[in-house]
């Protein structure tokens, strides 16, 4: 890990040193693809006794857009907004588990680009921000409690992503990317001291990406 960090720092230094003569500007991208969520643990459900009951999700889809500014030829900063959808497959111990989850991540990213003599450009990035999460409980019943409403919450999140882009024009590229997004401890407050809480939501997404610069 230390070796990887040292290489990244070296790349940042090289990018800063060459940034004076390198053409820089604005860039952005669009993405669309599939997303899957690791099994989460249910930490609270109204006042029912829970002990990390597993919550499993069906595969869903992701879309996202980002805009940013190039600091050098190798380094850029960007603001990203996205959308994730997954339905609930099962909840351990629940008599009924019909529900859907919508996540809207808003993140600030630091991105490293690796231009070379080929048209293939590796990209890695990471960022922090928040996720606006909507839990739509069609009919979730656990013990004597039932959740049949739509609730919203904000929670801290961070991500890392990597991909390989093919530059078919100097200002446009198409490729694939993998995103790891962790939505930390989303808690939906139901009032009267009741809530529904997951320990965290870990999203894995594989997407088709289109990037542009101007």
Describe the fold and architecture.
With 214 residues, the chain is mainly beta. The protein has a single domain (25-213), classed as Porin. It has one helix at residues 2-18, and strands at 26-37, 40-45, 53-57, 60-70, 75-91, 94-113, 120-142, 145-147, 150-169, 172-184, 187-191, 194-198, 200-213. It has an 8-stranded antiparallel β-barrel. A hairpin with a 4-residue loop joins strand 4 (60-70) and strand 5. The longest helix has 17 residues, at 2-18. It is elongated, with a radius of gyration of 20 Å.
Helix content: under 10%
CATH architecture term: Beta Barrel
CATH class: Mainly Beta
Number of discrete domains: 1
Q: Indicate the CATH topology.
A: Porin
Q: Give the count of helical stretches.
A: 1
Please tell me what the overall shape is. Answer: elongated
Radius of gyration: 20 Å
Order of helices and strands: HEEEEEEEEEEEEE
